[in-house]
Amino acid sequence: MAGDATGRNWDPATSAMAVVVAADVVVGLYYRFTTTSKLWLDEAQTVNIASFPVRMLPAQLRRDGAPPLYYLLLHFWMGLVGHSDMDVRALSGVFAVLTLPVMWWVVRRGFGRIEAIGALAMLATSPFAVYFATETRMYSLVIFLVTAGIGAVMALLSRPTVPRALLVAVLASLLIYTHYWAFYLLAAGGLWLAFLVVADKGARRRGALLGLAAMALGVLSFVPWLSSFQYQRAHTGTPWASGPSLASTFGWIGGFIGNQSVQAQAFNLHLELGLIAFLILLIFGYAASPVGRDVLEFRLLGQPRARVLTITFFVTLAIAYLASRQSNTAFQPRYASIVFPIAVILVGLGVAALPNRWLRVGAVCAISALGLWTTHWGAHVQRSQAGKLAVAMRAHVPASAVVVVCPDQLGPSLLRYAGRSSYDYVGFPRFTSPWLVDWVDYKDAVNGASLSGFSKRVTNRAGPSAFYLVWSKGYGVHTTCADLVGALARASGRAPTTLVVAQKYQYYQSMNLLRYSPHP
Q: Do residues 452 and 361 share a domain?
């Protein structure tokens, strides 16, 4: 019998876990390309920006607030594959699929076979990983690059060479150009490498020096984008949210076993059980090791092989929290994709820490069952009501009618399904087409908009013909859009009729559709 890297033999229990994980991967591959939902705001906005010629992407992203790599990749992907919902989401699915073998290689090489089986079971069935595999955003790419980066750093420390250091530099650069929270992870990792330079000797010290140089090179590669980043930081940010509270910061815990939806905020048995299993295995992965057939040893300071991962995990989140507080920007669970691979590895260590081989089988089965339960449920979560509104608009709204969209954040998704040129759209607050949301000084634009002035412009544009209002609560302009309903009625002298009611408990992005009748 062949032994794994931790000395455990390949036995019937390990074979059972391998069979379960193989099934997990097959089912997980299916769900990584499966969702019944329409694209919501962030996805539709991403597709619209990526549709511009490459030379125009930097200017468009200055108005949006994101780094360019994912948009550039999506631009070429759409040119190769197509623009349908399935087409544009498939790019994230591809990165999610690539992450599976990379995660196996990283954990198998660095920790052992049992640990790799546990980590792969977690990743293959993870509702978090699957959800972002089906979303046209950069988070699946973030997870892939971080996983590869962990493996690259481990390889560099085990055998320091210049090519391995260059790989770390490339991955650091790609990660920074994918999501700005990469800076927080690099800062945490850099602190650890600096500690190794001071405290360690021999090959690990040389590897740490090369690692620090590689991360510095990756950061230096950001210089060409620095002016765009500074402009975004000054004028875009996350105007739809305020800085985080300490309690809300750790919403990522629930995010890692759920998905981004209104339904996920309610009590669901599979979410509660999944959270319990996730936390138990995280704790075991950090602190526990078997010392006998049925005995575990817990160390408050953590097991040596889990200590660095855990410290990096929390230091990254702490830096992110402090930076978000200082800049008054959002701290969202999806941003924590930057540390999600670390959590997956810790779960794998937690499985291996169980003292009984059949307990490990049970843990893998529990991870798989709970993950796939939530994943299947999440595949049918509706992210946007735009598709339903588009059907109602085709039935009740004449072509070229004035359609007001409040806030304009509803526009990218709505126009994708209702047709960009089918109606005369105007978005609140800027009275421009809501096909793209211009985030530049967005709060100032909302606060400076006059409801009466905006309403008069709408009635003048519509004339005696009927006009329509698509609106929703939330989005940082909740009171204004609710007030706009009455302001339009006063300016036009027409009472609105409701055609579609926002179903806020069914859709993550819900919308109302109102009709203001024509003058007789």
A: no
> What type of residue is 507?
Y
pLDDT at 313: 93
Domain boundary residue, one of 332, 349, 382 = 382
Tokens of 400: 């070229």
User: Over 80: is that where the pLDDT of 141 sits?
Assistant: yes
Dihedral pair phi/psi, residue 39, rounded to 5°: -65, 140
In angstroms, what is the C-alpha Rg of the chain? 25
Tell me, yes or no, whether 131 and 275 share the same domain.
yes
Last-in-domain residue among 357, 382, 407? 382
What does the DSSP 8-state code read for residue 435?
T
Q: Do 370 and 288 share a domain, yes or no? A: yes
Task: Indicate whether 70 and 81 sit together in one domain.
Answer: yes
Q: Cβ-count burial of 460 within 10 angstroms (0-12 exposed, 13-18 middle, 19+ buried)?
A: exposed
Residue 299 inside a domain? The answer is: yes
183 occurs within a structural domain: yes
Q: How many domains does the chain have?
A: 2
Q: Count other Cβ atoms within 10 Å, centred on residue 203.
A: 13
In a domain, 16, yes or no: no
Q: Would the pLDDT of 245 be above 80? A: no
Helix residue spans in 379-437 (DSSP H):
386-396, 411-418
| pTM assigned to the model | 0.93
Q: Which of 284, 303, 286, 292 is nearest to 362 (CA)?
A: 284
pLDDT tens for residues 172-229? 999 999 999 999 999 999 999 999 999 888 888 999 999 999 999 999 999 999 999 9
H/E stretch holding 92 reads helix 85-110
Please give the single-letter amino acid code of residue 298: F
* 260 falls within a domain: yes
CB–CB of 289/303 below 8 Å? Answer: yes
335 plus 468 within the same structural domain: no
pLDDT digits (tens, 9 = 90+) for 373-397: 888 888 888 899 999 999 999 999 9
Place of tokens 């074979």: 15
Q: State the DSSP string of 245-296.
A: PHHHHTTHHHHTTS-SSSGGGS--HHHHHHHHHHHHHHHHHHHEEEEETTEE
Backbone angles phi, psi at 516, to 5 degrees: -105, 115
- CA–CA separation, 278 and 127 (whole Å): 12
Please state, in angstroms and rounded to a whole number, the distance separating the CA atoms of residues 107 and 305.
12
366 and 391 assigned to the same domain:
no
One domain, residues 113 and 157: yes
pLDDT tens digits for range 40-60:
999 999 999 999 999 999 999
Tokens of 263: 């339904």
Amino acid identity, position 443: K
Looking at the structure, do residues 79 and 208 belong to the same domain, yes or no?
yes
pLDDT category of residue 258 using cuts at 50, 70 and 90:
low
Residue 244 is predicted with a pLDDT of 67
Domain membership of residue 59 as a residue range? 38-232+240-382
